[in-house]
């Protein structure tokens, strides 16, 4: 069943894309999840391996993944999410019975368009795959590159910062003028 492979592959992608300061890690792995991914934006290729300290992720493109489990799961589900501040961007989700008893999968998944609005920086990626027979889950640190002014959120923040600065400057000038007026004879 392609869904199992997609699920396991996305979970492995999540583990590969989710890392602690040392590396991407499985926090739970009772079913022997394994795999890797190659992420591309069309011009540059970004390999994602489980021992990477930080995994680079472009703002657009696709991920070619392959994944496997040593224990076949049934009645399975899973999800991968990228945590950006208080928002989680869904990277993928799946569910199915796996009547075909598949233990591996490979495929290509388009990266969500929401990544284009994420400011450059390091973010947490989490994912899991679970079924009647057990589960695997993991986390990694993902680095999204680009200019600090390359996203609408960054430009909005810059605009708000400028407005706040102008507001503070105007308030300071008004207070200074009032103090001079009071001090004048």
Distance between the termini: 88 Å
Oligomer: single chain
> Proportion of β residues?
35-45%
Structural class: alpha+beta
Count of strand segments: 10
Order of helices and strands: HEEEEEEEEEEH
What does this structure look like?
With 185 residues, the chain is of the alpha+beta class. The chain is built from two helices and ten strands, in the order H-E-E-E-E-E-E-E-E-E-E-H. The chain has helices spanning 2-17, 152-183; strands at residues 25-29, 34-40, 45-48, 55-57, 62-68, 76-84, 87-96, 104-110, 121-131, 134-144. Strands 1, 4, 6, 7, 9 and 10 form a six-stranded mixed beta sheet that branches. A hairpin with a 2-residue loop joins strand 6 (76-84) and strand 7 (87-96). The protein is elongated. It starts with a helix and ends with a helix.
